[in-house]
Amino acid sequence: MASTLRSDESNLHDLVEHFFRASFSTDNPIITEAVRRMLAAGGKRLRPRVTLLAASSCGDDPQRHLHLAAYMELIHVATLIHDDVVDNAMTRRGVNATAVDFGNRVSVLAGDYLFAWIFKNVTANYPHPVPNILSATLADICDGEVLQLQALGNLELTLDGYVEIARKKTASLFAASAACGAIMGGGSAEQIDAMRVYGDFYGIAFQMNDDLLDMTADERSLGKPVGNDLRERKVTVPLVLALGAGNREFYEAVDRFYGGSGDAGIPGVVAAIAREGGLDSTRAEIARYAERAKAALEPLPPSAAKEEMKRLADALAAE
Amino acid sequence: MASTLRSDESNLHDLVEHFFRASFSTDNPIITEAVRRMLAAGGKRLRPRVTLLAASSCGDDPQRHLHLAAYMELIHVATLIHDDVVDNAMTRRGVNATAVDFGNRVSVLAGDYLFAWIFKNVTANYPHPVPNILSATLADICDGEVLQLQALGNLELTLDGYVEIARKKTASLFAASAACGAIMGGGSAEQIDAMRVYGDFYGIAFQMNDDLLDMTADERSLGKPVGNDLRERKVTVPLVLALGAGNREFYEAVDRFYGGSGDAGIPGVVAAIAREGGLDSTRAEIARYAERAKAALEPLPPSAAKEEMKRLADALAAE
Prior knowledge:
Two copies of one chain form a homodimer.
Chain A: H1 9-23, H2 29-40, H3 46-57, H4 66-86, E1 91-92, E2 95-96, H5 98-102, H6 104-125, H7 130-150, H8 159-184, H9 189-216, H10 219-222, H11 228-231, H12 237-244, H13 248-258, H14 265-275, H15 278-296, H16 304-317
Antiparallel strand pairs in A: 1-2
C-alpha cells in the first residue's frame, strides 16, 4: 500500500474526486460538459471506492487503479444519464437532469458515448477478462431494469423476484467493481471470487437500503422527492415484505393506490407499510445481506482495506 | 472460399438473413423480440455484407464470419433503436404521455442491452484489436450524431464539416465492418488498412446517397416521408453544395424556411436546391468517393469478392 494512502472513507473519496476534476475528459466537449455536471452534483463514489479497497486488500497500491475505479463510477453515471430519459425525471441528485438541460436526444447520445468511451479505454488498456466483465455487467444492469419495468405495479412480486432484479440492476456493478479491483490488484482466484461475492451481497443490501430511504429519509437529504418509488409504482422491498405479512385489507389498499383510485396518498401508504412491519423487516434483510457481504471477505488477509469494506457493509445496516 | 458461396449480393444477404432468423437470441426475451422486429422490418444488410466480402477478399471463407458480420448489423440496429427516442417537446402534444415514456424507456434499455450484449460476446470471442475497434466506432457514431445535432440549421456548414460528420456518424461503422472482416479473415496489415479506407470512403458516399434519396426518391421506395431531412433542419450535402454556389437569394429563402417563416414548402426547397446545382454536385461527389473506395482496394488480389465490393461502390454512384 502506498504510504500516502490511509484507506479511510474520506481519503478514498477525495482521491476519486481529485482524479475526476484533474483528469476526466472525453474527445467530445458537449459530452464532457454533461458528464462533469453529473459528477459535480456529488455522490458517494461507492463503486470506485470498492474497486480501490479490493485492490488494496489484495495487497496492491490503490492509487495505481484510479482509472479503473473511475470507469466504475462512469458506468454508473452513464446509466443515470439514461435513467433520466427512461424515468423522465426532473431532477437527479438535486441538479437539473441531463435530459432536462439538453433534451432526450442528447441524453441518449451522451450515455451511449460514455459507455463507448469507457469500453474503448478498457479494451485498449485492460487484459481479459476485465472488458468482458464490464460489458456483461452492463447487460445485467439493462436486463435488471427491464425486469423492473415488467414488475411495475406487480403486487405478487416475491422477495426472491425482488432480489433477482436488485442483483442485476444494482449489485452486478458492485460485484464487477470489487472483482476487477481484485483482478488488477493481483488477487488470487479465491480472493477475486470473494470480492465478487462481497460486491454482490453488498449491492443487494445497498439497493434495499435505497428502497428504505425512499420511504424514511427527508427530501433534503435524499435529493429527490420522498415516496418517489411508490409514485412510479415500483415494487420495492419494504412493500414486498409488508405484503408478505398477508393482510388482505392492506393488499387491497395498495392495489387501489397503484390503480390510481386509492385515497391513502403516499404518506398513508408508507404508514401502512410500517404498520405491516415492512420497514423493520427491510432493516433485518439489509443486516442479513451486510453480514453475508462481510463473511465473504474471509479469504482476505487482515488489512485496513478489509476493515473498511466491513465498515461499508455495517453502515448500510445502521441506517 | 466455401464452394457453396457465390459472393453475389443476394446470396450474402440471404446468408445474413438466415443467420439472424436461425441464430439471433439474447438472454432477455423482451429485447430479443424488439430486435427481431427491427430485423424483420428489412434492410440491405450492407454492413455485414462488407464484413463477409472483406474476409472473403482476404482469402478466407466468409461463412466462418457470420457472427462477426451479424454484430456489425446489430450495432447499426441498436443505434436505430436509440434514434427512436424522441424529445418530450416534440411528442407531448396530443399523445398519451405514459405511452411515450414507456416507448422511450424500452428504446433506451433495448439499445443499451444490445450494445452490452454485443460487447460481451465480442470481448469473449474476438482478439485485440476487434473489441477496441468496435467500441471506438460506437464512440465515433455518437460523436458524429452530437456534431450533427449541433449543426442543425447551420447554413454555414462547409463540405469539409459535412464530411467530418458523415465520416463519424456513418462511415466509421462501414470502416470497422471492412477492417474487422479483414482482420479475422487473416488479411495482412496493408490489406486491413485498405479495407478500412474502402469502408471509410464507401460510407461517406453511402451517406451522401442517403441524403440525395431523401430529396429525389418517392416516398414508397424510401419507406419514410420525402424531405424528412429538411423537415428536421438537417444540413445535408445537396443543401451544402447548393449553398456553396453562392446565390444570396437562395440562402435567404432557405434561412426563412429553416426559421419557420418561409413560404416555399419542402417541394419548393428541393426544387431550389436542384436549380442551384445541389443534386448534380451531390451525384458528382458520390461518384468521387465511390472511385476513391474502389481505388483503395488495389492491394487486394483479384477475387469475386473484390469485384463485388467495386460493384457496391458503383451502385451508389449509379442512383
